[in-house]
Design brief:
heme binding, metal ion binding, 41% helix, 3 strands, Cytochrome Bc1 Complex, Chain D, domain 2, 164 residues, mainly alpha
Length: 164
Amino acid sequence: MKFIPLVLAAGLVAACAPQAHTPAQVTGPSDIEVGRYLVKVGGCNDCHTPGFVSDGGKTPEDQWLVGNPVGFYGPWGVTYAANLRQTVQTLSENEWVGMLQTRAYGPPMPWPSTQALSDDNKRALYRYIRSLGPAGPPVPERLAPGEKPTTPYLDMTPVLPKGE
């Protein structure tokens, strides 16, 4: 009889144990559709498509992900949202997956979010972006801390309220 409570206790402990990390997986009818969905829900266009936020997301799809010449200025320097349509032309699919897994270029890009994607979803993003074809000019190079941009920029420098 002492065996049954022991088995129940072991089962309870096993049920409460942390599970191995498995990246979330989005699936769909095709990699292209999955990639398009991930771009939309991941907010990629918010930074990588000029005017996307200000026009309420109505930018035509053929203008998506061409990078943005408006910089993000902060303590890290100035970063620019990459022209992803040009980027995928210069990387193999495996290089793209590796970049999304290991890169930490700078704010405001949410690198921890891209690292959390499954490899299949990273590949779907690559295939979708590549399906759009190359478009748009290169974006300006990143600037080091203290350098002033000559392009428009959003100032993301933290400002404390007076008296703090």
